[in-house]
Amino acid sequence: MILIADGGSTKVDWCLADQGRIVKRLATIGANPFFRTADDMAAEWRDNLLPALADYPVEAVRFYGAGCASDEKSNVVREALAACFDCPDVRVASDLLGAAVGLCGHRAGIACILGTGSNSCFYDGERITENVPSLGYVLGDEGSGAVLGRLFIGACLKGQLTPGLREEMLAFLGMTTAQILDRVYSQPMPNRFLASLCPFIGQHVGDPSVRELVRGAFADFLQRNVMQYDYRHYAASFVGSVAHHFADVLRQAARDCGVTIGTIASSPMEGLVRTVISD
Fold first, then answer.
1. Cβ proximity of 48 and 84 under 8 Å
2. How far apart are CA 261 and CA 269, in angstroms?
3. In this structure, which topology does domain 2-100+269-278 adopt according to CATH?
4. What pLDDT sits at residue 238?
């Protein structure tokens, strides 16, 4: 049996598969090695993952994770996995490669992630050959949940959106303006806090001012990332909760930019299972 993981900063989706059949699916909290240690991840997986897999022989592990683009950081996750699974075949790769494999299989194309963070690449059907750096939610991450939250909070607090949204947002968060600023500038993982606004944004995306904010954020992602690849000859496919929940606005932004959309999926897991099992 092979255990496949789609590891994001907010959560990790696990899928145990056997001969192309999904046996069990589970979820644990985010496992980005920029924010967590190997010991921390291993301890959590022993408590929340291994008991659910106790009756199944895990023969191989494929972990595609946020923050795993470099050997240094992927080794942190590899160490945590080795502490939990007694099998020789453990491989760790970036969540971007996981997205590309899940979206494109062995076909060439532009693969994009729009979740808590954002990223993109050109994938030749086997490997990533081009990557515009995402740079995180301060310098980049255009179109991501964190950036949507940042733009939305800023616009609300500056009175740039429909009157009344500011008060609704504060009630949704249960915070004052001062508490929001403290949460963003003084508390850990502000990117997750900012992305937590996405359900509220989704509830109000029918408001013209909100829809335009979201469309503009997606257009920014397309212009600064996707359009640096050969987008005139290859479609761009997307994975992630933000891409999935705001798919109609994403398609509108793509039409405005002249970008062809391929697949939009909430998770790469189904495609990963098909491709990884067939290899």
1. no
2. 19
3. Nucleotidyltransferase; domain 5 (3.30.420)
4. 97
